[in-house]
Amino acid sequence: MQRLQLLENWIKAQLPQLAEFHSQFSPQDVTLTPASADASFRRYFRLTTGDRSLIAMDAPPQQEDCRPFVHVAKLFGEAGTHVPAVLAQNLADGFLLLSDLGSTTYLQALNEPLNENPGNADNKADLLYRDAVAALLKIQLASEPGVLPEYDGALLLKELNLFPDWYLGKHLQVVPDAKQKMELESVFKKIVQNNLVQPRVFVHRDYHSRNLMVTDPNPGIIDFQDAVYGPITYDLVSLFKDAYIRWDEERILDWLIRYWEQGRKLGLPVGRDFADFYRDFEWMGVQRHIKILGIFARLNYRDGKNAYLADLPLVEGYLRKACERYRELSPLLMLLDEWEGNRPPETKVGYTF
């Protein structure tokens, strides 16, 4: 409550300076309502007066740093994408005042029931994802080294190690024996080697349906503060192999081919052979999905955010399907089968892929 009062007082001091942009706001009448949930320590509030609204970010400095958000907002905005404008900032206390991109995420829009022809749902998805790819291409075309942190081998491996620590140890309640640990480390090494030789661009790092807003211009892009300079396929995996919504493999392949064709025309380093590009996409997906399994387990067992457990089966399915396709990943598939036998009965799932 103390931080909330501090945030309200700071906002009241900022509003007079924003009068030329938001004249309807009254410093004497500040009401904050929760705007969205976050998997981190950040909180977002919406300030509404009349038909105007702003978003306030509360990022406790002990756990979060607002500077990367401000930096990436500038980079992505200059690239021509629709990101929140930073209207005021208090980096010492961890407060930002942002323009409001609305409350409709891609995920919400895609899950809305359609009373008309069901085929319209497919059309809606194609239109939304066309816009998402167009924005991603702008971000990638603006890429240059030395501007964002490197998505290097140490970070990729650190993310992979969330899997044995949290998914295996806490969720499945298994501890790999010496042989299994060696096999897992060997697979991790192969995955990271593939990831590191891919061409590098700006990477949002969570470019998916919960962080893309339905806006005009579309999409609005949020939650980009962890952006890095890394593998070109990473954001495509986040988008097309989304942990929160499942698409048929045929549709994913179609969307990915369209991206690859556009990328080639624009001069992005996507290679001349789509088969090679698709393999890189799949291997990048293996890294991301191993990481996500660890993160979702950690969110549940450490942070008490148990809603993420419902999304585990989809991510587990992505991982198993990719491991079935590539001989080099078959040891991981065998390990998954072994550990599946140790899964507590209440957590066992059936795979639909």
TrEMBL record:
Highest taxon of the lineage: Bacteria
Lineage per the UniProt record: Bacteria, Pseudomonadati, Pseudomonadota, Betaproteobacteria, Nitrosomonadales
Keyword ATP-binding: yes
Annotated transmembrane regions: none
GO MF annotations, alphabetized: ATP binding
Matching PANTHER family: N-ACETYLMURAMATE_N-ACETYLGLUCOSAMINE KINASE (PTHR33540:SF1), TRNA THREONYLCARBAMOYLADENOSINE BIOSYNTHESIS PROTEIN TSAE (PTHR33540)
UniProt-recorded name of the protein: Aminoglycoside phosphotransferase domain-containing protein
UniProt keyword Electron transport, yes or no: no
Keywords assigned by UniProt, alphabetized: ATP-binding, Nucleotide-binding
Organism, scientific name: Nitrosovibrio tenuis
Positions of the Aminoglycoside phosphotransferase domain: 31-261
